């Protein structure tokens, strides 16, 4: 495949890395977005600065393909500094990566993510910081001109240790 001169990626990636041009639309893109199918979203203060204030959040339930125990994770960036971040993808070739023992890997378990860790225990118990099949629910999402927020019910994810748990992101 040849690289696209416009995006710098091969054509198959052009739809993923599409560069929106001002001429494409007179409408400004939204500063806040929520993607329901993956229970993730982002907030930002501007598209007109090289150093926006940005927050991204993720609350997908556990037990899905390629999952990590990261329900409730967020990233935060301001003034060009990433203050809270995700370690990113891992090596799928690691031994046991797609089995229950895969959660012993730091990047897959709750300790390797920017999430709350309650009553940590030895992994020999089969508990890795979050319920491996825990479900999540978006309870509320609002976006306005001067701010936005999202609130998730993560009670099932932490059901071993709490009866209720809400995780909120306010921007």
What does it look like?
With 171 residues, the chain is mostly beta strands. The protein has one helix and eight strands; from the N terminus they run αββββββββ. It has a five-stranded antiparallel β-sheet with strand order 1-2-3-4-5, with no helix packed on it. β4 and β5 form a beta hairpin. The chain is globular, with a radius of gyration of 18 Å. The termini are far apart. The model is unreliable at 6-18 (pLDDT under 50).
Chart the SSEs and their pairings:
Elements: H1 11-14, E1 33-35, E2 40-44, E3 54-58, E4 73-78, E5 81-84, E6 137-144, E7 147-153, E8 166-170
Antiparallel strand pairs: 1-2, 2-3, 3-4, 4-5, 6-7, 7-8
**Beta-strand residue percentage:** 25-35%
Provide the residue-averaged pLDDT.
83
Q: Give the number of helices.
A: 1
Largest sheet geometry: 5 strands, antiparallel
Give the structural class.
mainly beta
H/E series, N to C?
HEEEEEEEE
Give the termini distance in whole angstroms: 41 Å
What share of the residues lie within helices? Answer: under 10%
Which outline best applies? Answer: globular
Radius of gyration: 18 Å
Indicate the low-confidence ranges by residue numbers.
Answer: 6-18
Total number of strands = 8
Strand order across the largest sheet: 1-2-3-4-5
Quaternary status of these chains?
A: single chain
């Amino acid at each position: 495949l040849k690289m696209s001169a416009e995006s710098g990626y091969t054509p198959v990636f052009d739809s993923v890395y599409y560069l929106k041009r001002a001429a494409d639309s007179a409408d400004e893109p939204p500063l806040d977005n929520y993607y329901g199918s993956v229970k993730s979203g982002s907030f930002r203060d501007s598209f007109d600065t090289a150093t926006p204030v940005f927050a991204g959040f993720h609350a997908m339930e556990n037990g899905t393909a390629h999952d990590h125990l990261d329900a409730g994770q967020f990233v935060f960036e301001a003034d060009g500094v990433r203050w809270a971040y995700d370690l990113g993808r891992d090596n799928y070739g690691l031994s046991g990566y797609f089995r229950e023992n895969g959660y012993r890997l730091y990047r897959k378990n709750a300790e390797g993510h920017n999430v709350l860790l309650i009553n940590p225990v030895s992994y020999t118990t089969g508990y890795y910081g979050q319920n491996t099949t825990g479900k999540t629910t978006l309870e509320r999402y609002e976006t306005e001109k001067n701010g936005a927020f999202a609130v998730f019910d993560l009670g099932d994810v932490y059901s071993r240790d709490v009866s209720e748990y809400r995780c909120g992101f306010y921007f």
